[in-house]
Amino acid sequence: KSCQKPVDKYIEYDPVIILINAVLCKAQAYRHILFNTKINIHGKLYIFCLLCEAYLRWLQLQDSSQNTDPDDLIRYAREWDFYRMFGIASLEQTSFLVGIFMTLWWMRPEMLKTKSDFILLLKALLLSSYGKLLLIPAVIWEHDYTPLCLAFIKVFVLISNSQAIRVTLNLNRMLPWMAIFFGLILENGAICLFQKMGWDL
Questions:
Q1: How far is CA 117 from CA 13, 108, 121, 171, in A?
Q2: pTM greater than the 0.85 cutoff
Q3: What pLDDT was estimated at residue 99?
Q4: What is the C-alpha separation between 166 and 31, in angstroms, rounded?
Q5: 23/30 Cα distance (integer angstroms)
Q6: Residue 113 has pLDDT above 70, yes or no
Q7: Where do transmembrane segments lie in this chain (predicted)?
Q8: Stretch 148-171: mean pLDDT
Q9: How many percent of the chain have pLDDT more than 70?
Q10: Greatest extent of the chain over all pairs of C-alpha atoms, in Å
Q11: pLDDT, tens digit, for every residue of 78-89?
């Protein structure tokens, strides 16, 4: 009644169709998921995506240092490598999110003036990172095109993040991409810092 506009059409749609439209990065599907559903899996999804990324890095680290020594100490060290990769992935993702929030706050401070605005955008960004779950099938079905698949997954996640920012803050297409660009700069700065500290990525 307040906006005199039609009700959200996705309320009557099957969840599978909503999911397909979200995968296709349709703004209306994102709007429905963020504003008209009570999904509270963003924290668990975020942790699971970080685990997927840590596993991929850990697997690449194992491939680069193949050692068939069955000693328990070696296995213990490899387990700590996984935890280290998880920590690095967490710090990089945090840097990316901080870069996005800093850019948006600098460009449009009125949009993130309340705690609820901040939480909604954070929830949208975490939910829109669901594409990282594709890292596991890409690793399991390893083939010659795996690096290309990983690049496509990264691009898909960035497009999803852009759409989530756009829908949440009701922006045009340019500002979300600028925020993502600065988020990537901060994330790559964190990667360079880790490499200078001697951490293998």
A1: 27, 12, 6, 14
A2: no
A3: 93
A4: 10
A5: 10
A6: yes
A7: 85-106, 118-141, 148-169, 175-194
A8: 90
A9: 84
A10: 70
A11: 778 888 889 988
Alpha carbon 45 to chain centroid, angstroms: 9
Q: Is the dihedral of CA 71, 137, 185, 122 positive or negative?
A: negative
CB 163 within 8 A of CB 25: yes
DSSP letter for each residue of 127-184: HTTGGGGGHHHHHHT--TTHHHHHHHHHHHHHHHHHHHHHHHHT--SHHHHHHHHHHH
Q: Decide if 100 contacts 166 (C-beta within 8 A).
A: no
Helix axes 72-107, 42-64, angle to 10 degrees: 130
Per-residue pLDDT tens digits for 37-47? 887 888 888 89
